[in-house]
Amino acid sequence: MYEAVLAAAARNGIRVIGHVPFSLSIEDAMREGHWSVEHLLGYERSLVAESNGFYPDWADADTALMPQLAALTASLGVWNCPTLAIIHIYAGNLEKTGRAVENRRRMVGALHRAGAHLLAGTDSGIGVTQPGTSLHDELAELVASGLTGAEALRTATSTAAEFLGAVGEIGVVAPGARADLLLVDSNPLADLSALRTPPMLVLRGKLYERR
């Protein structure tokens, strides 16, 4: 059924995003048109040699396989929204937490080095991560995965605008762009934590000040 969805979407110029189902490998899903992968779902099934369930433990991932998988992702132009922050929370309830989190970071780092597209997202709205504040946690996770502060920031601004087909409209400080601005006390490129407590912000042209 999912392959039929991908085929129909391709015929009609519709992009397919979301979870890669258990019925397909991540490689086949990407080759057949899955355009954006959420939560890195599917990669773990190609990185764990033997699995007794739908969700192999990322702690057992074979890191040597990551560069090849990342190169395929980049070559196909597939996007990834890894949602590292929420998985970090979930992993806190499991054994081998440290290795699972670190291996997910390694996969994101491999994707980044291969030139694959990355997006910042936190899966907020389901009662696990907090809307707004969790985005800062995600940016910190991306930096821990090997991105620079500037590269991490782009995943939530200009790169996100590219993904949404809104280049020049959002995610950029430029004449004619939507007036959404975060005003900070220090350079966020030196320390992204400067973004957590902005003294002022402009949302669609209206100024808000922190009291």
Question: What do these coordinates show?
Answer:
With 211 residues, this protein is an alpha/beta fold. It folds into 2 domains: 2-175, Alpha-Beta Barrel (TIM Barrel), CATH 3.20.20; 179-211, no CATH class. Helix content is 39%, strand content 11%. The protein contains 9 helices and 7 strands. It has helices at 2-11, 26-31, 43-47, 66-75, 84-91, 97-114, 133-144, 149-155, 158-164; strands at residues 16-18, 34-38, 79-81, 117-118, 181-183, 200-203, 206-209. The strands form 2 sheets. It has a 4-stranded parallel β-sheet. It is globular. The termini are far apart. The mean pLDDT is 91.
Supply database-style keywords.
211 residues; alpha/beta; TIM Barrel; 2 domains; 4-stranded parallel sheet; 3-stranded antiparallel sheet; 9 helices; 39% helix
Q: Helical amount among residues, as a percent range? A: 25-40%
Q: Assign the CATH topology of the largest domain.
A: TIM Barrel
Distance between the termini: 53 Å
Low-confidence stretches: none
Strand count, sense and barrel status of the largest sheet are:
4 strands, parallel
Secondary-structure element series: HEHEHHEHHEHHHEEE
Instruction: Write out the strand line-up for the largest beta sheet, numbering strands in chain order.
Output: 1-2-3-4
- Quote the beta fraction: 5-15%
Structural class determined from secondary elements: alpha/beta
Identify the overall geometry: globular
Number of strands: 7
Arithmetic mean of pLDDT: 91
The domain count comes to 2
So how many helices? 9
Rg over C-alpha atoms, rounded to the nearest angstrom: 18 Å
CATH class of the largest domain: Alpha Beta
Q: What is the second-level CATH architecture of the largest domain?
A: Alpha-Beta Barrel
CATH superfamily of the largest domain: Metal-dependent hydrolases
